[in-house]
TrEMBL record:
It comes from Phoenix dactylifera (Date palm). Keywords: DNA-binding, Nucleus, Repeat, Transcription, Transcription regulation. Its main location: nucleus. One of its GO terms (molecular function) is DNA binding. Residues 117-164 are annotated as: Disordered. This is Transcription factor MYB4-like. Residues 9-62, 63-113 form the Myb-like domain. The keyword Ligase does not apply.
Amino acid sequence: MGRAPCCDKASVKKGPWSPEEDARLKAYIEQHGTGGNWIALPRKIGLKRCGKSCRLRWLNYLRPNIKHGGFSEEEDNIICSLYISIGSRWSIIAAQLPGRTDNDIKNYWNTRLKKKLLGKQRKDHQQQARRGGGMEQGAERDESGNLGVLSEGGSSQSTYWPEPAAMPMYSTSQLDRHVDDEHASMRQLLIKNEGRFSSGSNAGLQSPFIPPSSATLPQIYDDSASTMTPLANATTTAFGEGLQGPTGFAADLDELLRCNPVKSEGLDFYYGAGGMVAEHHGSITSESINWSEVSPLIYPNVVPSYQGMQQCLFEEPVHLILQ
DNA sequence: AAATACAACAACCGCGCTCTT
DNA sequence: GAAGAGCGCGGTTGTTGTATT
C-alpha cells in the first residue's frame, strides 16, 4: 500500500504564491504561530495550499530576517568548506549562515557556485598547461562540465589529479561507489582550492583530505579507541553514511577537530563542550537536533572563526593522517 | 524586433525519520 | 510494538527574467 498523500492534490492550488496568500500566511503565523501542525494550517487560514507548501513558503521566503542573493565571498567560502566536509547537507550548511535558507544555498550552489568553481578550475587548468604542466589529451571535462576523478574501475587516473603516489588509496568497493560521483569530484576541486575561491598564500599546500588508506585507518582510531569509537558512530549517524565518502572523511574531520579544539570553535555545536557529539554517544540524527534552536547560538561564532576553521581544515590534518 | 538559449530562483515531489496513538 | 500522520530534507522541475543571435 502506498503512502497516503499529505493533502488532497485536486483541491490544492499549486504554483507561485500571490501577495494575498503571502500576507494571509504571514499574518496568521506572526499572530498565532504555526500551531505545530502545518497540514492543518492552510485550512485554518482558508488557503487552498498544501501544508508543506505553506511551510516551505514561510521558511524560505516569509520568515523574518531572510536574506536573498548577494552572497559574500566569505559566505561562498563557508559553503565550500562545509560542502567539503559534509556534502550536500544544505540544512546544516544553512544553519551556519544567518538569514540564509537551505533552498537558497542549494540553488546558489547549483546555479552559480559550482560553475564559479569549475570556472576557476578551468583557469588553473589552462595556467598549468601554459606552464608546461603536461596535460594529456582527453583530460577535458565531460559534457556536463565535470572533471573525471577516476575512471571506471579506478585503473587509470585523471590527467589532472595528482600522480598515483599522491593519490588516496581507495579500496575497490569504495571506488565502485564513488566513480563519477559528482560530490566527490566537486570536493576534489574544492580541496585543491583549499575550500575557497580566493587564492591564498599557501596555494601549493597539499590537501589534508587525503583519505587514510585501509592500513592507516585503524591506527588513527586505535590510538584513542575509547573516545573515537562513539565519536565516529555519532558522526556517521548524525550526518549519514554517505558522508563517509570514499575517505572516511567525516571521521578525519572528527579527528582533526578533536585535536584542534581551539580552531574548531565554529563547529562548537558539533564538538564543543556539551555539544551533540559529547552528549549523544552514537544515537543522534540530524533530525533530532533542532537546528533552528542551535543556530542562534552558533551564528556569532561562525564568521569570525571561519579563518580558524579553515586553517584547521586545510593545514593540520596532513601530519595527523599520514603520521 | 523576434526567436532562442541560458541563468536564476521558486516551488514541488518523494522519501526517511520522528512522534503520536 | 505497529501503524499512521506529520515534518524536514534533498533532489528535481517549472517558471520567469535576461542575454545573445
